[in-house]
Write a sequence for this structure.
């Protein structure tokens, strides 16, 4: 049987999530032996035409031509995996969704008429069905290997659906919110990073996006009690996953 | 091979570069009439979205401009914000910043040398194909890259978008014990880095020279990384705060990146070869020795030799990291306080691809009023286009496929980071 084919695609993003594939240093050559890398422009000038068994899609959709491109990629891909906060929640560039994009364009460019852009930065799932999502800004290398391994084995990947709090407990990190009074988004953020920030004495800043089925009220009360204003809360939630649908619900709850 | 006098060379999607772009070269009557490095990476409007954010946020937010050099963004951002607030971070905290930055240089240079650029010289489409014939060499490159990533992980929490950097310093500083295993690995890696220099110095380097003015930061006594004063090899020196008076950015229709020029002087080049020309006397002992064995001389005007300079900088970054780790004593506090104040601040550091400038205006309320970021790739765009024009002119006897490939290689000499500049490179060589 031929090795399954893998394609890597980029939309508006920083390249960090696809770089995570190259960062699998110890496993990269082993992986390359089991998967045929058919399209990965950051790494190879050789490309093979579709269809592809697996497409990893990085970045958010922000231009009219990218809307068409993501549909073509979907049509050529058996499994489509959105990787990272841009592809799953619009990325930091989704802050434009709360502003006037024409005004944004004129701040950065002297000739805004040269620049083609949509008013909103949207996750891949806005335009096409997505089979799996890897969260994070950036994604976690271990999760990427788990996903590729599972797809190779024909089983469902095991991806966390719980909050960062569980990872702090597993790691033995004392709760920053309780013990140090440090604002932390861990209780409403999806696990997967390994709770790095709290281990460094810093509150979670939510780069893996909102965890499903969470009730943020207790956390919001605690953050307000720690002195965060409504503006502070809005800024805290509107960062790298600004267009995540679940975030809108949290923000609604946070309005006084 | 007909129509050699009139051709259109195009590469629709440049590969082995960071981000999305294309190249377009038109040849009419044996003359190169148009060269465009087309950057079509969609704009992300960082300078606009930073407005109204807290002055403590730019290190995290601007890191997301580039997954390959996030530390560069964090360091330029911290320096600019601290400047606006009238604070300077020195001593062991600055050493730790330099150590983190060395990790990024090691990782980024190993990535570019082994995975992106070397395959060009050896006739492979990628490093995975190269590994089939020379697995040991590719594994050596991956091990060097991993060392850089692990160094960033120890100091910064993770390699891509480190979490431990804050305005004023760090959230937590490592203990000597935590750094000890890295010290041992850095020592061993020196041999691999020296072998890297010897390997790339043996490549078949095309004969080609440029005459761009070279710009890099200079910090006498040390090879500039995390701070310095802008200098050019044409004798121009100016403080970081005067950057925008000397560097003029222009918008061109074919690119979402802005083109930069030196005011009254024209195109210029930043990056490893510029740093080498202006800073080589401060290279670490082994790096100096490696440069000399590789026959680099005191400056390097052949862009195809940039891979050798990157390898020499790899030796330097490892030796410098080893020096910092060996002398390291944890600072008494992980950060110094940086209270916000009304002001404008400027920062510039040497990203792996060249000088990265940030400017922020901060209000008394601690919110950012305006931001300006000038990444290395947009500064180099005019020089890359000039190289392509001259390079193609001298090689019109090549068939289109070989010429196009040579052009792509010429672009990769600069390790363009189009995500930083804004978009991905698509090479289009027009031969009508």
């Amino acid at each position: 049987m031929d090795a399954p084919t893998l394609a890597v695609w980029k939309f508006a993003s920083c390249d960090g999530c696809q770089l995570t594939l190259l960062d699998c240093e110890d496993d990269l050559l082993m992986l390359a032996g089991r998967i045929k890398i058919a399209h990965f422009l950051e790494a190879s000038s050789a490309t093979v035409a579709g269809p592809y068994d697996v497409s990893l899609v990085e970045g958010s959709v922000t231009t009219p031509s990218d809307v068409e491109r993501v549909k073509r990629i979907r049509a050529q891909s058996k499994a489509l995996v959105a990787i990272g906060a841009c592809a799953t929640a619009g990325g930091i560039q989704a802050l434009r969704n709360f502003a006037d994009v024409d005004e944004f364009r004129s701040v950065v460019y002297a000739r805004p008429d040269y620049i083609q852009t949509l008013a909103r930065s949207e996750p891949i799932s806005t335009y096409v069905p997505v089979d799996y999502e890897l969260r994070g800004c950036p994604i976690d290398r271990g999760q990427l290997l788990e996903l590729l391994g599972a797809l190779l084995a024909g089983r469902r990947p095991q991806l966390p659906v719980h909050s960062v709090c569980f990872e702090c407990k597993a790691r033995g990190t004392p709760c920053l919110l309780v013990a140090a009074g440090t604002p932390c988004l861990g209780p409403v953020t999806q696990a997967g990073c390994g709770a790095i920030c709290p281990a460094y004495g810093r509150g979670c800043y939510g780069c893996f996006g909102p965890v499903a089925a969470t009730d943020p009220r207790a956390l919001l009360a605690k953050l307000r009690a720690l002195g965060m204003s409504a503006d502070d809360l809005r800024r805290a939630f509107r960062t790298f996953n600004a267009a995540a649908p679940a975030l809108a619900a949290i923000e609604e709850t946070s309005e006084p | 091979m007909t129509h050699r006098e009139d051709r259109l060379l195009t590469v629709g999607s440049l590969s082995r570069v960071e981000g999305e772009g294309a190249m377009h070269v038109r040849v009419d009557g044996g003359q190169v009439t148009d060269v465009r490095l087309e950057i079509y990476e969609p704009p992300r409007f960082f300078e606009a979205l930073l407005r109204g954010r807290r002055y403590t946020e730019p290190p995290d937010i601007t890191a997301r401009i580039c997954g390959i050099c996030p530390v560069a963004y964090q360091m330029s951002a911290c320096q600019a914000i601290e400047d606006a607030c009238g604070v300077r971070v020195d001593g062991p905290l600055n050493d730790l910043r330099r150590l983190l930055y060395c990790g990024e240089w090691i990782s980024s240079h190993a990535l570019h040398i082994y995975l992106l650029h070397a395959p060009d010289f050896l006739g492979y489409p990628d490093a995975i194909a190269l590994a089939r014939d020379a697995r040991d060499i590719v594994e050596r490159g991956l091990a060097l890259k991993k060392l850089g990533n692990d160094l960033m992980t120890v100091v910064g929490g993770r390699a891509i978008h480190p979490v431990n950097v804050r305005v004023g310093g760090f959230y937590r500083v490592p203990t000597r014990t935590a750094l000890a295993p890295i010290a041992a690995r850095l020592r061993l890696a020196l041999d691999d880095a020296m072998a890297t220099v010897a390997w790339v110095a043996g490549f078949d380097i095309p004969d080609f020279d440029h005459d761009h003015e070279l710009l890099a930061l200079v910090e006498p006594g040390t090879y500039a990384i995390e701070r310095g004063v802008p200098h050019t090899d044409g004798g121009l020196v100016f403080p970081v705060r005067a950057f925008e008076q000397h560097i003029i950015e222009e918008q061109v229709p074919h690119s979402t990146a802005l083109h930069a020029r030196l005011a009254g002087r024209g195109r210029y080049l930043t990056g490893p070869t510029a740093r080498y020309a202006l800073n080589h006397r401060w290279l670490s002992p082994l790096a100096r020795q490696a440069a000399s064995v590789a026959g680099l001389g005191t400056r390097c005007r052949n862009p195809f030799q940039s891979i050798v300079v990157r390898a020499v900088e790899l030796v330097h970054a490892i030796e410098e990291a080893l020096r910092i780790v060996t002398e390291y004593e944890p600072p008494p506090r992980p950060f110094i306080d940086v209270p916000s104040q009304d002001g404008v601040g400027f920062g510039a550091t040497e990203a792996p691809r060249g000088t990265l400038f940030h400017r922020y205006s901060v209000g008394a309320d601690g919110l950012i009023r305006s931001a300006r970021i000038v990444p290395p790739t947009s500064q180099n765009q005019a020089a890359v286009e000039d190289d392509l024009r001259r390079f193609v002119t001298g090689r019109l006897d090549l068939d289109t496929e070989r010429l196009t490939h040579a052009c792509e290689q010429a672009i990769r000499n600069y390790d363009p980071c189009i995500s930083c500049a804004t978009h991905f490179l698509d090479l289009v060589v027009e031969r009508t």
User: Anything to note?
Assistant: Residues 422-432 of chain B have pLDDT under 50 and may be disordered. The first strand of chain B starts at residue 7 and ends at 11. Chain B is about 45% helix and 20% strand. Chain B touches chain A through 68 residues (CB under 8 Å).
